[in-house]
Amino acid sequence: MAVSDIITGQFVRISQTSAGVGDRIAERVIDMIVIVVYLVSVSFIFGRWISGLGDTFTVVAWLIVVLPAVFYSFLLETFNHGQTLGKMAMKTRVVKADGSTPGVGDYLLRWLLLLVDLHFSCIGLLFIICTRNNRRLGDMAAGTLVIKLSGYKRLHISLDEFDYARRNYRPVYPEAARLSLRQADVISKTLYGSERYNADQAARLSAKIQGYLSITRRERDDAAFLTTLLHDYQYYALELV
């Protein structure tokens, strides 16, 4: 499962984990079971009554009954915050790739491409397996992805953290882009944590990072090196290019 860290234009850091192939298959199986149970139940309860309405009214009545099943995914995702019953069971949700909430048009596009994704040789499953964020064609077209709710976090960022950042800022260590959000947080806590700065911890962390990133530092002072590295990471995270 791929984890992506995003910093929005409103300076909100979003960490989200895409749902795995197993989750996607399980949620779809649950949804198909729900649809089948609905159709069987409606047929059993209203079948005889609908059949006695006459040819024209029977066709119209069956269309009305079947439409909720046909539009199941679109209706549930649109009016249930990106979740079908299968997604609720698997604790997953549809979001935009930038972490925002999809619009009605996005949900509609995902639904329209279900015909291709699921019913034409299950090509959608192939894309889910092969793409980085486990996205089917409908997701790629709508700019959405399905995420695990347990891996979704929103964190407001103080603009004071980025007072050094300017359009003409040039990173010193391109390798800083390889740092994860958690690793950058460790650096930040080492430098600015509530406890008093510990030179030994900074030295050990500096040595560990140099080995991990395979870089040669330019600063003699450990604190200066870690500060530069953190600024470079934030530069790439904010995409100040």
From TrEMBL:
Stretches assigned to the RDD domain: 19-143
Keyword entries, A-Z: Membrane, Transmembrane, Transmembrane helix
Classification via InterPro entries: RDD (IPR010432)
Cellular localization per UniProt: Membrane
UniProt topology in membrane: Multi-pass membrane protein
Spans through the membrane: 29-50, 57-75, 108-130
Transmembrane helix listed as a keyword: yes
Highest taxon of source: Bacteria
Main location, first listed in the record: membrane
A Pfam family: RDD
Protein name per the record: RDD family protein
